[in-house]
Amino acid sequence: MRAFVAVALPEPALRLLAAAQEAFVGADPSWRDEKWVPDENLHLTLRFLGDIPAEDAVAVTEALQEAVRGRAPFEVRLSSVRAVPSPGRARLLWAAFADPAGSFPPLARALGSATARWCAEPVPEPFRPHATLVRARRPRRVAPEALAAADAVLSSAGAGDGAVSVRHVMLVASTLTRCGPVYEHLAAVPLGPG
Length: 194
Prior knowledge:
4 helices, alpha+beta, four-stranded antiparallel beta sheet, five-stranded antiparallel beta sheet
């Protein structure tokens, strides 16, 4: 099965991302028909494992439990929309998260070490927590005014709307279909003393 480790996004953050997407497409309608991620599939990506044996789900969950043991829950906030790798040749749009306490990089490194048996790819440095909003069918230019419109939505949000409380990491299986991926939450692993 294809699997990844993620953080679920609360409803207010999902609504905020939908509004940012609307603002982006309103400013640049040429992006309307790209492959936007449905609200129910939006998540904060921590670690993509790729194809792993289905029978390893329990072992992966145990490795995640070990990685998060003793890590205190923390808060992050939606901060901006970014064109990846660049506004001139974007393949993706990401919603980036502000991590004022710097809690994500050590968590990502711990998860990378814990899951190295299933994915030897190193954790990117610097680690950038994000939610993928859209995948372009081909690299394309992003209009600065579209990014500005999406960012304006995020920056004008109320105090709780863009907040994400990181209290669990999830192991998720991804099944690719003609209509896009279908996600199944296999395990929620709580941060904390354990």
